[in-house]
Specification:
Rossmann fold; globular; 8-stranded mixed sheet; 9-stranded mixed sheet; Luciferase, domain 3; single chain; 577 residues; alpha/beta
C-alpha cells in the first residue's frame, strides 16, 4: 500500500468531545517553527516577563534568550550540528533548558536522561544514541569516569546546580559539595559549564538556519511495548502542538502566570507541560532541582505557583505536610494529577485541603505517555467528570479497541487505549520493529499509537483509565519495567531466576520487590548483599528493589508461566534449598 492509498482511505474520526471546543480550536495548524523559535517569539512579546524561577532567582525572557544564544555559539564551535544527539543529564536547573534550546537552535537533538542514572544506564544511552557530547551534573563524575574515555566521546561539560544561584548561595553550595563528591578533572575531554560559557561569549556568530516543525528535537525514554528501554524521538511539532492544546484547555492561564516544575526534565510531562508550554505562553517555569515532600507546603508559600501538575503521591505529601500555619493557596488556578490513578477518597481529601486554604482550585486528572509527548487528555475547569482523566486535547483523538481484532469498542466498554495525534513520536530510534508495533495504520487510514493501557470512554468523550496491560510498576510517578530489573539481577552469577513485582508503598504508591532463585552452591545473607550492590551499580536508585526474597522456586500458573499474582501476595521469609 502506498502512502497515497493511505491518504485516500482516511475517514473522518468520531469525536464526541468536540462539543467542548470551538471550530477554531479543532482546526489549529501547527506553524512551521522550532521550540527555539517559539521561545524567541515569547521573548519578543514579553521581554521583561520572568521566564525561569530557580531557588529564589528570577531570569526574564530577554536574559534567557541571550544565554541560549551564547550557549548555541559555544555548541557550534564544538562542532555540534543538525541531527547530532547531545545527552543532557541534569536536574531541573536553568542550564538544562538553556542547553536544550541552544541545541534546538542548531537543529541538534537533546537526549534528556535521568541525572541519577546508574553507570551502565549512562553508558547504554550514550552508545544507543551515538551521542558524542555529554552535559552532566558534576556530582555524577564517579558514574562515568571508568568508561567515558573508551567510547569515543568528544566533549563532556560538567554543570553545578550552584552555577545559576546568586553569588552567596552559589558559594555556599559549592563549599557544601567540596568534600562530598570526587571532583572531575579538566583536560581536552572535560570542561566546566562556566569555562564553556565564558569561551562561548567570545565565539564567532554563525549564520542561523531556521529549523521547522518536522525537525527531530528531543529524545525521551520509554519502555515501549516490550518493557525494554526505548529512545523516543520527538519532533518540534509535538511541543508546539502540545503548547497550543494546553493553552486552549487551561484558558485562565495568562502571560505572567507560573507553573511549578516538580516533574523532571527527562519526563515528557515535566519537559512539555511544565517547562516548554509556560515558556511558549509568556509564563514562567519554577524549576525544582530536588523535591522535598515533607516541605511541600513551604515550597508553595515561597513560589506561589499558578499551575501545579504532579502525580497523586505528591499531592498526598502536600496535605500531610504541616510546616506552614495559615497557608494561603488563593493564587492557585489549576491543579492536575497524572501518571497514576487518583483514588476518589484522595481526590476529595485534596479538594477539601485546597478549600480550607482559600483556594477555589479543584484537582483534575490528565493522561498521557512519552510516545505522544505526555499529555493526551486533560480535565479542566467545568470540563470534568470525577474519576475521568478528561477529554482529548484539541486535535487529539482517542478510541478504545479490542486488542485482538483492533475493532473499536462501544462507549463504556473497557479495552486498549489508542491515540491519534499530531504530537505522536517520530518513532523509536533505530528500532523499526518496535516502532511498527507501537504505531499502526488502522482501517480508517490513520496512524494510531497502541498504548498498552486499559480504559473506556463515555458518550461525552471522557476517558476513564483502568490500569496497565503491560507489567509495569509506577513508583513516585516513574515508570519501572520489571523485565529490566530482572535482566540485571539475573546477570549476577549467583542468580538462576528472578521475578519482580510491584508491592504497595505508603508514599511511593508502589515499589519493586524481587523474588530470586539461586544457583546451586549459593546461599546466605552475603549473597543478598552482593545482589543489592549489583543493583546499585546497574540500576537507577528508584528501580532498586525495596526487598529481595530468596525462594526455592517461583510459583507457576497452569500454563507454566510465573504466577505474578501469587508473588504480589507473598509476604514470607527467605527459603533456601
Amino acid at each position: 500500500m502506498s502512502i497515497f492509498d493511505i491518504f485516500r482511505r482516511k475517514k473522518k474520526l468520531d469525536a464526541p468531545w468536540a462539543k467542548y471546543y470551538t471550530e477554531e480550536d479543532l482546526s489549529y495548524t501547527i506553524p512551521n517553527i522550532s521550540m527555539y523559535e517559539q521561545v524567541r517569539i515569547s521573548t519578543k512579546n514579553y521581554p521583561k516577563n520572568v521566564a525561569i524561577q530557580y531557588m529564589g532567582r528570577k531570569i526574564n525572557y530577554q536574559t534567557l534568550l541571550k544565554k541560549i544564544d551564547i550557549a548555541a555559539k559555544g555548541f557550534n564551535k564544538l562542532g555540534i550540528k543538525k541531527g547530532d544527539i547531545v545527552t543532557i543529564l541534569l536536574p531541573n536547573i536553568p542550564e538544562a533548558l538553556i542547553s536544550l534550546y541552544a541545541l534546538n537552535k542548531l537543529g541538534a537533538i537533546a537526549n534528556m536522561t535521568h541525572p541519577l542514572s546508574a553507570e551502565e544506564e549512562i553508558r547504554e544511552t550514550l552508545l544507543s544514541t551515538d551521542s558524542k557530547y555529554l552535559i552532566i551534573y558534576d556530582a555524577r563524575y564517579d558514574k562515568i569516569k571508568d568508561f567515558i574515555k573508551t567510547i569515543g566521546m568528544k566533549k563532556v561539560i560538567f554543570v553545578s546546580p550552584g552555577n545559576s544561584l546568586n553569588i552567596i548561595k552559589g558559594t555556599i553550595y559549592d563549599l557544601s559539595q567540596t568534600f562530598k563528591f570526587k571532583h572531575h578533572p579538566i583536560d581536552r575531554l572535560y570542561t566546566s559549564w562556566n569555562s564553556f560559557f565564558f569561551k562561548a561569549r567570545f565565539s564567532k556568530n554563525f549564520i542561523r538556519k531556521k529549523y521547522g516543525r518536522n525537525t527531530p528535537a528531543v529524545i525521551l525514554h520509554s519502555g515501549g511495548t516490550s518493557g525494554k528501554a526505548k529512545n523516543v524521538v520527538i519532533q518540534n511539532r509535538a511541543f508546539i502542538f502540545a503548547a497550543k492544546g494546553e493553552e486552549i484547555d487551561l484558558i485562565r492561564l495568562t502571560p505572567g502566570d507560573s507553573a511549578l516544575a516538580i516533574m523532571p526534565n527527562f519526563h515528557g510531562f515535566g519537559l512539555s507541560v511544565l517547562m516548554h508550554t509556560p515558556l511558549a505562553l509568556g509564563c514562567s517555569t519554577i524549576l525544582v532541582p530536588r523535591f522535598n515532600a515533607k516541605k511541600f507546603d513551604t515550597l508553595f508559600k515561597k513560589t506561589r505557583p499558578t499551575c501545579v501538575l504532579g502525580v497523586p503521591t505528591l499531592f498526598e505529601a502536600l496535605i500531610n505536610s504541616n510546616n506552614e500555619k495559615n497557608l494561603d493557596l488563593s493564587f492557585l488556578k489549576y491543579v492536575i494529577s497524572g501518571g497514576d490513578l487518583l483514588p476518589k477518597a484522595l481526590e476529595d481529601k485534596i479538594n477539601n485541603y485546597f478549600k480550607a486554604h482559600n483556594s477555589s482550585a479543584k484537582i483534575t486528572q490528565g493522561y498521557g505517555l512519552s510516545e505522544a509527548l505526555a499529555c493526551v487528555t486533560m480535565a479542566h475547569d467545568d470540563v470534568n467528570k470525577s474519576g475521568s482523566v478528561g477529554i482529548p486535547l484539541a486535535g487529539n483523538h482517542v478510541k478504545i479497541i479490542d486488542q485482538s481484532t483492533r475493532k473499536t469498542l462501544p462507549y463504556g466498554e473497557v479495552g486498549e487505549i489508542v491515540v491519534h495525534s499530531k504530537a505522536l513520536m517520530l518513532g523509536y530510534l533505530n528500532d523499526e520493529s518496535e516502532t511498527n508495533e507501537a504505531l499502526q495504520i488502522h482501517d480508517d487510514g490513520h496512524i494510531w499509537l497502541h498504548t498498552g493501557d486499559l480504559g473506556y470512554m463515555d458518550e461525552d468523550g471522557f476517558l476513564f483509565y483502568k490500569g496497565r496491560i503491560k507489567r509495569m510498576i509506577i513508583t513516585s510517578g516513574y515508570n519501572v519495567y520489571p523485565s529490566h530489573i530482572e535482566q540485571v539481577i539475573e546477570s549476577h552469577p549467583a542468580v538462576l531466576q528472578c521475578s519482580v513485582v510491584g508491592v504497595p508503598h505508603p508514599y511511593k504508591q508502589e515499589v519493586p520487590k524481587a523474588f530470586v532463585v539461586l544457583n546451586d552452591g549459593f546461599q546466605g545473607l552475603f549473597i543478598k548483599k552482593e545482589i543489592k550492590e549489583h543493583c546499585k551499580k546497574n540500576l537507577a536508585k528508584y528501580m532498586i528493589p525495596k526487598e529481595i526474597v530468596i525462594r526455592k522456586k517461583l510459583p507457576k500458573t497452569k500454563l507454566g508461566k510465573v504466577d505474578f499474582n501469587k508473588l504480589k501476595n507473598d509476604t514470607g521469609e527467605d527459603v533456601y534449598e
